[in-house]
Design brief:
Distance between the termini: 57 Å
Shape: globular
Low-confidence stretches: none
Helix content: 40-55%
Strand content: 15-25%
Bound molecules: adenosine-5'-diphosphate
Mean pLDDT: 94
Largest sheet: 5 strands, parallel
Length: about 170
């Protein structure tokens, strides 16, 4: 039976840290589904479709990786995909509290699944989508933190917003 892993997240926008985790996962499992969360309660910078496009263009050479979206309970999504492995990236100790709570509740809801935590390359330990958006808004160069398609989309979204604010 092929081993399918799901890597869920907001990816708002996808960063080099996310791509690093996707690459590592693609070496470990037969199939990887990167699942963009469609959570209306969160105020995202990019729509689900934009985040999917960003991921598709940022992971073109990884043959066993596909991009999808989900809403509702993550364990229901895993079940529908016949996936038993949930991937999460662990950067720093402060990630652990929340991640362990999620892993514990998910395992109680779906005992057959396992959460696997992967550590990114050290360069990405302090990288998050929110910090990138914040510094980009203030004019920082973000080229070394995001895959080029995500970088272009973020710059163009910021320009749109600036124009709106000016008019
Ligand atoms: P979520 O809202 O689900 O936390 P994110 O897009 O912020 O969505 O993160 C998705 C997953 O990727 C999480 O497991 C998060 O810990 C991990 N992640 C985020 N940034 C990085 C990074 N720089 N390196 C490794 N993992 C990361």
């Amino acid at each position: 039976m092929s081993k399918i892993a799901v890597y869920p997240g907001s990816f708002d926008p996808v960063t080099n840290g996310h791509v690093d985790i996707i690459r590592r996962t693609s070496r470990l499992f037969d199939r990887v589904i990167v699942a963009v969360s469609n959570n209306a309660a969160k105020n995202h910078t990019f729509s689900v479709n934009e985040r999917i496009q960003m991921l598709v263009h940022s992971t073109p050479r990884l043959g066993n990786v596909s991009i999808d979206s989900f809403s509702g309970l993550l364990v229901d999504y895993l079940h529908s995909k016949k996936a038993q492995v949930l991937i999460r990236g662990l950067r720093v100790v402060s990630d652990m509290d929340y991640e362990f709570q999620m892993a514990s509740i998910n395992r109680q809801l779906y005992p057959k699944m396992e959460t696997v935590f992967l550590m990114p390359d050290e360069r990405y330990t302090y990288l998050s989508s929110s910090i990138i958006k914040e510094v980009a808004r203030l004019g920082a160069q973000i080229k070394s933190f995001l895959p080029p398609p995500a970088c272009r989309m973020l710059y163009s979204r910021l320009k749109q917003r600036n124009r709106k604010e000016e008019s």
